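Students often ask why we bother encoding 3D structure as a string. The short answer is that it lets us treat folding as translation between two languages. Here is a chain of 138 residues written in the first language.
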Amino acid sequence: MKNTFLAALVVGLMATGGLAADNWECKYSGNWTRTTDGKSGDLVWTVTWVKQGGGWSVIGNMNDQYGVSTVNGTCANKNCTFTQAYSTGSLVGKPYVYVGSYTDKVLGDGQTMNNFAGTWTGNGNAGAWKAKAICQRK
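And here it is in the second language, the structure alphabet:
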């Protein structure tokens, strides 16, 4: 009876938002490289990961030499796809797609070290990217 009550309480709290979702906040530092000419640049990517079923929803902002952009995506089995849309700079209105995979290492105290690597395409260009962050459970 006690276990049934506790299970009902947990389900009820989850349904009403009484328990925090499995969320992580990460601030990535990394870089991208363009395949055609080897041009490269640094990026800073601040995102929130939210557990969604068997995967993750990822949303945040990226800053690089071309401006500020919004990045939205999904991840499952450590493989991700993101879309990027610039809100400032010379690339406003030119969407980009990032595909990549990640590894993470538990550091303790609700933190993990997260390393990403993948490819990107957009605006007639393509290349590689990588980034890493220490993520904090929220």
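Translate back mentally: The radius of gyration is 18 Å. Keep this in mind for the problem set.
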